[in-house]
Amino acid sequence: MKARKSHFFKLQDSLFKYFLIACSLIVVGLFVAIFLMLFETSLPSIYQNGWSFLTGLVWDPNNNIFGALPAIAGTLISAAVATLVAIPLSIGIAIFFTEYAPARSKLVLSLFIDLLAAIPSVIYGIWGLWIIAPLIKTNVEQPIIGAIGFIPLFSGPAYGLSIFLAIVILTIMVIPIITAITIELLSKTPVPLKEGMISLGATKSETIRHLGLPFARLGIVAAVILGLGRALGETMAVTMVIGNSYYWPFSGYSIFAPATTITSKIAGAVGEAGGLEFSALLEMALILMVISLAVNFISRSLIKRTSKRGFG
Amino acid sequence: MHLLSRKRKETFVKILCFLVTAAVIIPLLWIIGDVIYNGLAAWNISFLVSPVIQGGIGNAILGTFIINGMACLFGIPLGVLTGMYLSEYGQEGWFASMVRTTVESLSGIPSLILGLFAYATIIIALSQSATDRHYTAIASALALGLMMIPLVGKATEESMRVISNDIREAAIALGVPKWIRTTRIVLAIAKGGVLTGSLLAFARISGETAPLLFTALFSNFWPTGINQPMASLQVLIYNYALSGYPNLVTQAWGAALFLALIVVAINIIVRVYTKPKYKEGF
Amino acid sequence: MQTKLDVQDLNAWFYQKQALKNVNVKIPEKMVTAVIGPSGCGKSTFIRCINRMHELVPGAKVSGKVLLDGADIYGTMDPMDVRRKVGMVFQKPNPFPNMSVADNVVAGLKLLGTYKKQELSELSDANLKSVGLWEEVKDDLKKSGASLSGGQQQRLCIARALAMNPEVILMDEPSSALDPASTAKIEELVKKLKNETTVIIITHNVQQAARISDMTAFFYLGELIEFDQTANIFESPKNQLTERYITGRFG
Fold first, then answer.
1. Is 60 exceeded by the pLDDT of residue A202?
2. Are the beta carbons of C134 and C122 closer than 8 angstroms?
3. How is residue A141 annotated by DSSP?
4. Are A288 and B242 inside 8 Å of each other by CB?
5. Which residues from B are below 8 Å from C88, CB to CB?
6. Does a structural domain hold residue C251?
7. Would you call C69 an interface residue with chain A, using a CB distance cutoff of 8 Å?
8. Cβ-defined contact of B172 to C160 (cutoff 8 Å)
């Protein structure tokens, strides 16, 4: 037998195991390092600005005054509204895909959904900036302002680049995430129950409403939260179309006004920032990271619960 | 009468779902149409092969591939090895669940923050002073590699885990040690899934711009080394789209078309390669 | 009759549940020993203790001795060495799908040692011939092992175990997933194998045990009830439980 000796294999076996553990430790270490770096760099700002960082409205590097509330509000509002709008649209597509779409069109349709998720955000950005912003300005914002501009939410002037446009683009970017998971959940509706309902004379829409959606509910919630996470952290597309004006929504409530988010503020300012401003920007990043991780964690625990129930 | 109204409701739901689907597919086709139309207007041979300084995008194409390549060198091995650990060694225990939680959390960190991490740990650390920053493509690769780890790791873990235990038992019964079984049987069977995951991760980082903005920065010239500022398609699109000069905006559209082609091509290749089964997310 | 395996006071557990109780048996060399008994009687656990695969299941525990040619496999011997000397064929055929038919046969040798290409291909051909698969697959040697039919896959797995030149070969209901024609081929093969090696085969089918084995062991609720020459077991069983089982009154 020309086989090697067993003790040789045993040594290799434990070396290999420790090698894998070491690699996993590197990954854990990098994650911890990201967190520590953000925290450590934020310390001067946390120390100097205190709680007023969370409530302040002014960002003035010349006088070392840093309040992050407009950016935090912009991030939360744009992500939340975009996700809310995306929910019915995504569920509609998922129902169309699983119930009504002809079998041959499914391949193309699912490729489209994948592509929607795959298109780089900077391409959404250039499209929003040069194609959609002018269109929305003249065909949506100006008519609405003209008709109901007396309502603060829709007051003028029309800029094109606005929180409204950012929400539109974010909605398009969030839809494929929620849709993909919802399709997966709906296609796992227990077939015997489905057949049972149809044999009782239920229509497809009734089957979906009373069987498919209730079964998928928890998973859809997880998908929505996952989509929210994506919207919260999105940088490029938002930066390019939101107009980057720091005071919204405290300067006025119009959704057609330019605004800012945590990500667009950081992307725009970090290159030139030094000293306390850099520290303040990283404190904003730390806040974003904590929100993102919390959202991610909630979504994953929900997904785990659905898979324990036997589907998802 | 009752039956009729139920039928009407069914038709209504069907049409509504169709309209919603169309409403989302239209922007997709619209974007693709705009990118092709405006991009092709910029394209010719010299546009693709000459550097930015001569009005082309050649150095940005090369830069994107160099940065992605470096990110792969770092992200794919770490992802595969971590995924392998989770699938074959880390079924239980606190260490394994810590690693699993970390990998999942890593995928939830916005890419901008990974860019900030690379900026703070490499750019600022290597710079002489605040006014004389040393920008380098290596920092970009670190940020993008960090993005790849959870994508590749999850793909590896999942495609190894679905392999039947019968196969592992066959190897054990032959007296094959675990590490050989893991690498030359289980990983070898799962390599299609690992490859697919790596390709999708490559496509994903190809479009990432935020981690490059303040790490690789930009350059108008052909790269002469990796430890220096480097152009990329992504940053070119961002900078030139915002510049407002028509000729630069056209250049940005041309770059957008090339970038979209990379991403779409990889997605279609993966789609054809992995059979028409719906798979996404998680 | 030379003893190949001497099992002494073998006990096995899954967590609290005792799966084998004080099993003592001497398995003779170069014979086919059939292991029979109703589901859950411990027969699978018994053979998995002989190549030290039982202990891989979480919560599993073993005590006692298993002497292979006088040396205790639970003593200083490495489990990997044990498994190389004691080959195993499983209930469901499990060829490596990433390897060709030819490579599957010599998979163990290839993964463990340093052999020349020429040696490997000769060994592969020889073992395919000895399981009677050569004529059927000689034109498809480069195809994936998973492309063969179920019966062919199982014979491929037997060839893979044989290529390691094992002292003992364990078979866990190797034909239970196969059609009657494939089963007949496996049975023929098992009868032939005892010229070269010692075979221990679990079977759910009492007639199969009668057809192919020299010795038969009957297990019930984790205990070895009776062990004797197959002819004796089937013609004049000493224990009433054995008689009831082989006449099909329970199981």
1. yes
2. no
3. I
4. no
5. 173
6. no
7. no
8. no
Least confident of C7-16, C106-115, C223-232: C106-115
What is residue A308's predicted lDDT score, i.e. its pLDDT? 63
Q: How many independent structural domains does chain C possess?
A: 1
DSSP string, A53-101: HHH---EEGGGTEE--HHHHHHHHHHHHHHHHHHHHHHHHHHHIIIIIS
Q: Which of B20, B114, B130 sits opposite A89 (nearest CB)?
A: B20
For C76-113, letters b (16+ CB in 10 Å) and e give ebbbbbbbbbbbbbbbbbbbbbbbbbbbbbbbbbbbbe
Q: Residue A203: its pLDDT value, please?
A: 84
> What CATH number is given to the structural domain containing C178?
3.40.50.300
**Per-residue pLDDT tens digits for B69-123:** 999 999 999 999 999 999 999 888 899 999 999 999 999 999 999 999 999 999 8
Give A204 or C63, the one with higher predicted confidence.
Answer: C63
H or E segment to which residue C223 belongs: strand C223-229
| All domains in chain B, ordered by first residue | 43-273 (1.10.3720.10)
Nearest residue of chain B to residue C82 (CA atoms): B175
Residue B220: how many CA atoms within 13 Å on its side-chain side?
A: 5
C94/B contact by beta carbon, under 8 A: yes
- What is the pLDDT of chain A when averaged over all its residues? 90
Amino acid found at A234: E
Structural domain of C132: 3-246
pLDDT for the residue numbered A309: 55
Domains of chain A, by residue range, sit at: 70-308
Q: How confident is the model over C44-56, as pLDDT tens digits? A: 999 999 999 999 8
CA C65 – CA C61 distance, rounded (Å): 13
The complex scores an ipTM of 0.92
The CB density around residue B242, as the number of other CB atoms within 10 Å, is: 15
pTM, two decimal places = 0.92
Q: What is the distance of C-alpha B123 from the center of its chain?
A: 23
Q: Any idea of the CA torsion for A102, A106, A108, A111, to the nearest 10 degrees?
A: 160
Contact status, residue B263 vs residue B202, Cβ threshold 8 Å: no
C112 touches chain A (CB under 8 A): yes
- Nearest CA among B231, B223, B221 for reference residue B140: B231
CATH classification (class only), A70-308: mainly alpha
Taking the CA of residue C142 and the nearest CA in chain B, the distance in Å comes to: 16
Question: Percentage of chain A surpassing pLDDT 70?
Answer: 96
**Residue with token string 């299609």:** B192
pLDDT at residue B277 greater than cutoff 60: no
